[in-house]
Design brief:
The chain is mainly alpha-helical and about 1000 residues long. The chain contains 44 helices and no strands. α16 (about 340-350) packs across α18, α25 packs parallel to α27 (about 580-595) and α41 runs parallel beside α43 (about 945-960). It is flat. The two termini are about 50 Å apart. About 35% of the residues are buried. Residues about 1-40, about 405-415 and about 970-975 have low confidence and may be disordered.
Length: about 1000
């Protein structure tokens, strides 16, 4: 059989048995046919996995399908083959086109095939796909009109087709190429309506939809489609360079056409209106920028500037705003509008200067772009306004000296010099001068703030101070004067500026309404003090420096400026020659109080010692200083605690009584020393301090807490008996039942831990009798008694508490726990074992009937005990109970066989007696085997404890043939089968 025939047969089977699957690149998918029956299947043959399948070219496939048509008359099969042939012919034509092989009418065969299929099956549900392929064949074959007609039919007849969207796009393209923009717009709209997920042409459809509207002069409407194109393409950072070349060109073209649209309408106003309606877009700045650039190309300079201004006013905090404002100025520069340039540069400073909201909120990169402009504009504007103000000052005060000169002279100001001013005119002129001084000062200040390292800054600062002083803005004058005096090495102006600052403070405080009651008075007093201190430090040789320092230190303390107060007072204490004694005493008090507030308690302690040395012994303030001294030491202890230095803290607490024994906190400090040691686990060191405190201050309220602390300390130092004694004392000394219950149990535990069994028994027993609740703890107390009576060899007392545990659990109801069940089971096991031992001790003697009756009675009692034990369902005791029950039957069987024989029996009678005994014993042995086997079966469930093992051992004795076999290992693994 040839390969071609084999291929043909396989293809026929595939076509007849499977659903129609389109060729590669073809999009038709037929409905599934009914699957063949089992009778139709050929015997399965595994293919050679190493065999490489042959490649079949298109021509061979087409020929093979044509041969299939020649040998079959089945309509459905022929229809499928025709579908396949049509797709293959289309594929071959496309391949030839791709490979640029010129074949006459190369799509005609595909067209004929699709037409034949459509004509022969006009109602077939998949005809929409055939029409799509047919239109494609027409289009690729250069028959655009025919392609359009097929597409028209497809979109009308099959609006739900998967090819509907692409068909509409192709129709739109044809319409647009024909300049039929109305129909193009409608067709593109249909593609858009299908959504991005259903059409790969969605984005191009948006773009061309906008162009169709533009061509129809529907300018405002086109902006919607163009906007959606930008929404899809413009990245979040607005950087188009990162887009692919095609996407970038499409996006740039969209911006360009939108700029044209805006220029046709109301320019930047249209942008604002449109996006008030559409909603904000991250790329909206690019719309204004592109429009402004279009205006520049058209030499519409003011329109370009207005476009930028619109954006800046609409988005004043945008990162693009300073860029656009610079472009606005460039537009005026290019157009030669010098007055507008000056005005806009001044406005630039308002919008983007260092004090603007923009500067404060934006990146350093944006700030660096602005700096060169500010560096140029600020000095020009400052000097301009300062000169204008001074011209007015000259008019008001003809003898005033002027340093600032302006290149511009006001005609109005010159005219004023030629006449005498009225009071009203003087007032108005003064207000104008003040306004201009203020404006000049603002520009000086802004330059300083913007360029703090510039070499002009010292001069700018002095001019700022002068302009503020002239404007009677003393607070700002103070600031500038102090900078000149203390920041720059200007010896000529330093002292003048420093003193001028103090004068300015005085003038400012004088003008505050309500004087010291004004809410701002304290703040300005603080500043005044600071200025005084700076003056005293800088000009230390001044005669008033010591008094200024002392006064400043006191005022700073009153204002809670503690560190500054210490600094000022310390300067006074270090002066050489020394200041007078009263000033030194005040200084040391300021230092002591301030250091205390600053938590430098060592320094505070030293300062108070200095004060006590200066104060006479009769001074009434000595006691207050002693209390402050004690508090300083106490605070040192607290700081040591915070620093996790408990031993140091304890030493400091104890030192309080040494340095200030009569202070009110000396006793408390001793207790705190013990607490510090306790809290840091230094229990051995804490015990003697607590014990001494308890002896020395028995009536102190703090003493009541000592027993509990001693309990902890003794436990932590493993002095269990001492801890138990403290707990016993607490138990005996309190009326709080909850505390009594808790301490009694704890005492029992600690006596047990100290191996004082008798004391432990007494307390556990007292607890068990007195406190049945909470139930779990009461059970543990009973169990402790059980254990302790075992340890002290008191079996009867032990069994008393075993029965107590059983009864307590059995009657606990919902309070019962797994633990109580376990303890009850343990207790039952001991009592059951007692019964088992009693059963064991009973021998079968003659007369057998009587002894057997006693034995059976003991057996029943023992069985009941172990059955009760098993009922607790505690695994380890369940297996014990089962083993014991089996052994009971086994022992009874053995006891029967080992019982005494009557002495008067002859050999025959004795034999008969032995047989009777075996008959009596055998059922018990069988019962024992049955029970032991049941216990051993638990191993299959993963339970293999000592009692399951014992059952296995018992079975080896009872059934040696089954259970006493030795395991033999095979020589080969196969022996296990």
């Amino acid at each position: 059989m040839t390969y071609r025939l084999l291929f043909w047969l396989a293809l026929s089977i595939a076509i007849s048995a499977c659903s129609w699957v389109p060729f590669i690149g073809e999009e038709e998918v037929e409905e599934q046919e009914a699957a063949p029956t089992l009778a139709d299947l050929q015997p399965a043959v595994m293919p050679d996995k190493n065999r490489t399948l042959p490649m079949v070219d298109l021509n061979t496939l087409i020929t093979t399908y044509q041969e299939v048509l020649d040998v079959t008359d089945e309509p459905e099969l022929r229809l499928r083959v025709l579908h396949r042939l049509a797709g293959l012919e289309m594929k071959r034509a496309e391949q030839n086109l791709y490979e640029q092989e010129v074949v006459a009418n190369q799509f005609e065969l595909a067209i004929d095939a699709y037409q034949t299929l459509l004509a022969s099956n006009p109602e077939h549900p998949r005809n929409d796909r055939l029409r799509y392929q047919l239109s494609k064949a027409y289009d690729l074959g250069g028959q655009q009109q025919q392609s359009m007609e097929v597409l028209d039919q497809l979109v009308v007849d099959s609006p739900a087709s998967d090819h509907y969207s692409e068909a509409q796009f192709r129709r739109a393209e044809i319409f647009f190429s024909r300049a039929d923009y109305r129909n193009a717009e409608l067709a593109y709209a249909e593609v858009i309506r299908q959504g991005k997920e259903k059409s790969q042409h969605y984005e191009n459809a948006l773009y061309m939809h906008g162009w169709s509207q533009f061509k129809r002069e529907r300018y405002r409407a086109s902006l919607q489609s163009f906007t959606e194109v930008l929404d899809l393409n413009v990245p979040a950072d607005n950087k188009l360079d990162n887009l692919s070349r095609g996407m970038r060109e499409l996006t740039q073209d969209t911006f360009r056409i939108m700029s044209i649209v805006f220029s046709y309408l109301d320019g930047p106003k249209t942008i604002s209106e449109v996006y008030d309606n559409f909603g904000e877009r991250h790329y909206i700045g690019l719309l204004y920028d592109n429009l402004a650039k279009l205006y520049l190309e058209q030499e519409r300079y003011k329109d370009s500037a207005e476009a930028y201004r619109t954006y800046v006013e609409r988005y004043p905090q945008s990162d693009q705003s300073p860029v656009f404002y610079a472009s606005l100025i460039d537009a005026y520069l290019t157009g030669g509008f010098s007055e507008d340039v000056l005005r806009e540069k001044e406005q630039y400073i308002v919008y983007y200067g260092i004090h603007s909201e923009f500067w404060q909120s934006k990146s350093e990169e944006s700030q660096n772009y602005i700096r060169p402009f500010l560096e140029q504009y600020l000095p020009e504007l400052a000097r301009h306004y300062h000169a204008k103000a001074q011209e007015k000052t000259v008019v008001l005060n003809p003898g005033a000296e002027q340093e600032i000169k302006s290149d511009e002279t006001s005609l109005t100001d010159n005219a004023l010099t030629d006449k005498t001013l009225t009071e009203k005119e003087r007032t108005e002129l003064k207000q104008l001068a003040i306004s201009e001084y203020l404006k000049a000062g603002d520009y000086y200040q802004e330059f300083i703030d913007t360029f703090p390292e510039d070499e002009q800054v010292p001069e700018m600062h002095f001019l700022l101070a002068e302009s503020r002083f002239e404007a009677e803005v003393y607070d700002q004058a103070i600031e500038a004067y102090e900078i000149v005096a203390y920041k720059y090495p200007d010896h000529e102006r330093g002292a003048i500026a420093g003193y001028a600052a103090i004068l300015s403070y005085g003038l400012y405080l004088e003008r505050l309404p309500d004087g010291s009651n004004h809410p701002d008075y304290e703040n300005w007093l603080r500043l005044k003090i600071e200025s005084q201190l700076r003056f005293a430090n800088t000009f230390a040789d001044d005669a008033n420096a010591p008094i200024v320092l002392t006064k400043s230190a006191e005022e700073l303390l009153g204002l809670e400026e503690y560190q500054h107060a210490v600094d000022a007072a310390s300067q006074l204490t270090r002066r050489d020659p020394p200041a007078e004694q009263s000033l030194r005493k005040t200084a040391w008090l300021v230092i002591g109080h301030s250091q205390f507030e600053l938590q430098d308690f060592v320094a505070a302690e030293n300062a108070y010692h200095e004060v006590l040395q200066i104060l006479p012994s009769s001074d009434v303030t000595r006691n207050d200083i002693v209390e402050r001294l004690a508090a300083s030491v106490y605070k040192q202890a607290e700081l040591a605690l915070a620093a996790e230095q408990p031993l140091e803290a304890a030493d400091q607490f104890l030192r309080v009584a040494v340095v200030a024994p009569n202070s009110s906190i000396s006793i408390t400090a001793k207790f705190d020393a013990a607490n510090a040691l306790m809290n840091s686990a230094h229990y051995a060191e804490a015990i003697p301090i607590l014990d001494q405190f308890r002896r020395n201050y028995p009536d102190n309220p703090l003493t009541a807490d000592i027993p509990a602390k001693m309990v902890v300390a003794y436990q932590e130092t493993e002095q269990w008996s001492m801890a138990a004694d403290e707990l016993t004392a607490i138990y005996q000394g309190t009326d709080d039942e909850a505390l009594k219950q808790e301490t009694l149990y704890q005492a029992a535990e600690l006596y047990e831990r100290a191996d004082d069994k008798e004391s432990a028994i007494l307390r556990y027993r007292a607890y068990a009798h007195a406190y049945p609740d909470p139930f779990p703890i009461a059970m543990e107390a009973r169990n402790k008694l059980n254990e302790l009576y075992v340890a002290t060899n008191q079996p009867d007392k032990r069994r008393f508490w075993l029965r107590k545990m059983i009864t307590a659990h059995d009657t606990a109801g919902q309070q019962a726990t797994d633990r109580s069940r376990y303890l009850a089971a343990m207790s039952s096991s001991v009592l059951a074992d007692d019964e088992y031992q009693a059963f064991q001790r009973l021998r079968l003697t003659l007369p057998l009937k009587n002894s057997l009756q006693r034995k059976r009675k003991a057996l029943d009692k023992t069985l009941n005990a172990y059955q009760k034990l098993a009922d607790y369902q505690v695994e380890e005791y369940t297996t014990l109970a089962t083993f014991r029950i089996g052994e009971i039957y086994n022992k009874l069987s053995g006891a029967l066989m080992e019982s005494d024989r009557p002495k008067d029996l002859d050999a025959l009678a004795l034999e008969q007696y032995e047989l009777l005994l075996e008959e009596q014993a055998f059922p018990f042995e069988e019962k024992a085997i049955e029970i032991h086997e049941a216990n051993s079966q638990r191993s299959w469930d993963g339970v293999y404890d000592a009692w399951v093992k014992e059952s296995f051992d018992a079975l080896k004795q009872l059934l040696p043939a089954r259970y006493a076999k030795e395991e033999k290992g095979g020589l080969y693994a196969s022996e296990i089968y």
